[in-house]
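Tokens for Reticulon. Go.
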Amino acid sequence: MQATADSTKMDCVWSNWKSQAIDLLYWRDIKQTSIVFGSFLLLLFSLTQFSVVSVVAYLALAALSATISFRIYKSVLQAVQKTDEGHPFKTYLELEITLSQEQMQKYTDCLQFYVNNTLKELRRLFLVQDLVDSLKFAVLMWLLTYVGALFNGLTLLLMAVVSVFTVPVVYVKHQAQVDQYLGLVRTHINAVVAKIQAKIPGAKRHAE
């Protein structure tokens, strides 16, 4: 019974996080989204200048400096005003953050599902179960070699973060035009794939 209640609570928390993430991506609270977006950009820019160890250490020192300073400030304030408010972070210290065995099993099962599907898909592509799909994958990898020559991993991650915080808003504002261009691109890709299938004997049969 307790496990069911914990699972329901965790599902509610996940639903709440999902709703908050959507609000952030669509800039429904400009102040909050600006803080999150700016923090991500600052972190990625820091990683381009310093090592991961240095960035993590400085972030930890900054967080500790803020919490220790606030703790000392509240203690001095309570001593001067002779109040007994208790620990300033008491609410967060008492917050339950442990995962139950059922929740761990649920997340493990999800991870196992995605890993198994990924391995099966990679096996299907590399062992050419479907010739056309393997050719598409080869073209994608070939394009990635050019992308890798132009950008490093952090630059791509930085571009991805910028895209995540800008693409949804742009799509909502210009949905009709974007859908039109995406339809043209999809039609062109399908035409190219059809030509490849026509030129390679047996490709269409394997694809079916």
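The radius of gyration is 25 Å.
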